[in-house]
Amino acid sequence: MTRIAILLGIAVAACANDPQYVQCGTSDTMDVCTIDSTMNQMGSGDDTFVKGSLHVPIKPETADLTKKRMDLQATMPDGVDVPLYRLDQYDVSVEYTVKNLDDKPGQIKIGLDGANETFAWDPSMIMPADDEAPPPPDLGGDVPIDIQAGGQYDGIFREDQLLEAAIDLDQITRGNINMYAATLTINKNDPQFQPLSAQMPPPPGSNDPPMQVADGPAVPRAAFRNFVRVDILLKTSSHMTLEFAIRVRPHVNDVIHDMGMDAPVAELTILDPPAYVPAYTP
């Protein structure tokens, strides 16, 4: 992570499209960028994990950005809200390093989740429909990786993977799209998505839930929500540590703070929305 620290130090007065590496900073003491698999475990049994989170250093909306958002809102169908923080404003990627502290080989899974300005995605908050149902999915990752004894693994979630995850989150939460369908389908190039009626349980005497139908106008890509927080989950039965940072590449000025999470609190917008829980998970 030395390179990340150096690049953060020189990323001053950044212009649009200049990449910036962001680590945990002084403006949000709740952010955790270094995690240990033996500490602060969540879940139970084979589903145990340790979680770290890091906010995107977004600024409060300025008068200029408000005008641009309202101009864009005027082009939207009735019922489609333009968010404050959108896909077109910045790209996000994640770099991480895992170290195996055991004297024997181990295996990890790294889950990628996060939040937009309206909802967070936390699979541990969602109860499967029954004992045979698959577990709720992470938005990305969760692929087994082997690490040798005392070894180290450097990994990355690319911009296109974060883009896919952000769109999946918006489709699941705003669009009521089935979480398995959203995460198993490639949506990163979608020009729009059609919101559906909420998923509901089967009526009495039936095993089949009601069919979802289109609900309201399609949401154009220009109104897709972006990540405002990234969550990383470390899943392993071995003693591992994980350190991560996010890389933000802004496409417009005055959205990403060039001091990262070390910026003054008043110059950042730190959002922690509620976790989304669907009404029913078939």
Q: What number is the mean pLDDT?
A: 92
Give me the secondary-structure category.
Answer: alpha+beta
Q: How many DSSP-defined strands?
A: 13
- Structure annotation, total helices: 4
Helix-residue proportion = 10-25%
In whole angstroms, how far apart are the ends? 42 Å
Q: Kindly give the count of domains.
A: 1
SS strand fraction: 15-25%
Unreliable residue runs: 2-14
Spell out the helices and strands N to C: HEEEHEEEEEEHHEEEE
Shape: flat
Radius of gyration: 20 Å
User: Biggest sheet: strands, sense, closure?
Assistant: 6 strands, antiparallel
Describe the structure.
By secondary structure, the protein is an alpha+beta fold. The chain has one domain. It is built from four helices and 13 strands. Strands 3, 5, 6, 7, 8 and 12 form a six-stranded antiparallel β-sheet that branches.
Characteristics of this structure?
282 residues; alpha+beta; 6-stranded antiparallel β-sheet; 5-stranded antiparallel β-sheet; 13 strands; flat; disordered N terminus
Give the topology.
Blueprint: H1 2-10, E1 20-22, E2 34-36, E3 50-55, H2 63-73, E4 90-100, E5 106-115, E6 120-121, E7 140-141, E8 145-147, E9 152-157, H3 159-175, H4 179-184, E10 192-193, E11 219-220, E12 229-235, E13 240-250
Antiparallel strand pairs: 1-13, 2-13, 3-12, 4-9, 4-13, 5-6, 5-7, 5-8, 5-12, 10-11
